[in-house]
Model the fold of this input.
Amino acid sequence: MKRGTFVLLTFVFVILVIFMNGCGAYNNMVNGREEVRKTWQNVETFYQLRIDKIPNLVATVQGQGDFEKSTLEAVINARASATKVTVDPTKLDAASLQQYEQAQGALSSALGRLLVVSENYPNLQTNSAFTELRAEISETENRIQVARSDYNNKAADFNAMIQRFPRNIWAGVFGFSPFPYFQADQGADKAPKVNFNFKDSAK
Done:
């Protein structure tokens, strides 16, 4: 085999290896990115489920004529603000996640305050509609925390993947960037600890 031919074949082989490596890296990063986006949709679904339950909760509490007005208004306003903040999963960055988390955190705080104040109204504690809604919201809050944790785990896996060599090179070439994380105990994002089992808290 002539030297020129050998050099040419070697060059073609190297290019082919690089091409195949790039294709594999790209496909893996796409799959990882879609996994993160899928878990993000779960987060939004459970936050929306909580938002959807609040009007019924407010209506039930309003039936208690002397209920603390400022607390009720805080929930209504926080819900209105939370519904205005949406995130495009294809453009999920630290700034948009922080804005979303702050809005949902403010709603968590207002809702937590309402449930605490409701302990002062015995009629509400014996209202079957209120106790059912309280239990549903408690379950939804748990689902939100699980969904947030799942999202953070998937984001961590993806972020680690695109930072490893040589995939970090391909990530830069193809424009893949790391996903932001939900932060715990950060200002308004810190949801109050609410005891949903008022029977136990009354002992």
